[in-house]
């Protein structure tokens, strides 16, 4: 692990950002700082001759545009993952009002996936509870206390250790300090909690005549983007609505993520339009793998999920997907594809560091 990668850690292999309130006001409005890096007003400097233009786009272009300065601090070199190839399972589960049933059902799906040789299991968003503001307070668990106070995560920990697999545990409602969160827990093969990600961007939308939902009525937004080293590589975690914010994925990529996992429950309005589009965009822009997992669709439920859990490769290609019924997708991730695609299409060397910067404030502060 490099020195200065992060300010705070949940464990020795988990990086998290601190509270933005501790930094100067100038940093708070946005993490992505677009700078014009002033040009001379001399028209001759703006209207380049064709000869100079062709020279600009020559092999020396990348160095003259200072691509290393597009990231401040510079992007972390992609770490060598513990494995090159492995199988991932996306468990698209049906969810009921019976919490005990939901937990045992998830356990069975994980066990069946492990029997097929998977090393990583991804569960859906809010898999132990109906997705509703009325349900969140009732089904919420005290994750930090563990044991009987959090039967859902206790099950994930036990199964991960027993089956020797990594689990990105979708998300469940969490109760902490008098507040509720939409929280994803990551467990290693040893059954230990490696990371806990609280949904950063709450799902508050209002499309008249189609869907209105406001998570902020009951939930509190998290404050720490989360990237974690696991037995299957470095993973950046987001939950559903988090996928819409490309800056988060860019920061994860700059910190050396191999894979982004987004448990999510897109709806019947935005799902057909945006679900696959956003996954492919995040994967293509950052040239890494993106995995998503949705609950199965229940037309009788108050909130109807789109389904279509999916794995996308670093060239934006859909490697595996499904429809809306309950199922488990098993697919292979080959990390050598990341290096291949970044060689084929060297976006990292072509960034215009003279025009824009992605400022990783917390890494910068730690140095």
Describe this structure in words.
The chain has helices at about 45, 50-55, 60-65, 100-115, 135-140, 150-165, 245-255, 270-285, 335-345, 345-350, 360-365; strands at about 15, 30-35, 70, 85-90, 120, 165-170, 170-175, 180-185, 195-200, 205, 210-215, 225-230, 235, 260-265, 290-295, 310, 320, 325-335, 355-360. The chain is α/β, with parallel strands linked by helices. The protein has a single domain (about 85-365), classed as 4-Layer Sandwich (Nitrilase/N-carbamoyl-D-aminoacid amidohydrolase), CATH 3.60.110.10. The strands form four sheets. The chain has a seven-stranded mixed beta sheet, with helices on one face. Strands 4, 5, 6, 7, 8, 9 and 18 form a seven-stranded mixed beta sheet that branches. A three-stranded mixed beta sheet has the order 2-19-3. Helix 4 (about 100-115) runs parallel beside helix 6. The radius of gyration is 21 Å and the shape is globular. The two termini are about 15 Å apart. One of its GO terms (cellular component) is mitochondrion. It comes from Aquilegia coerulea (Rocky mountain columbine). Pfam families: CN_hydrolase.
Which labels suit this protein?
367 residues, alpha/beta, seven-stranded mixed sheet, 11 helices, globular
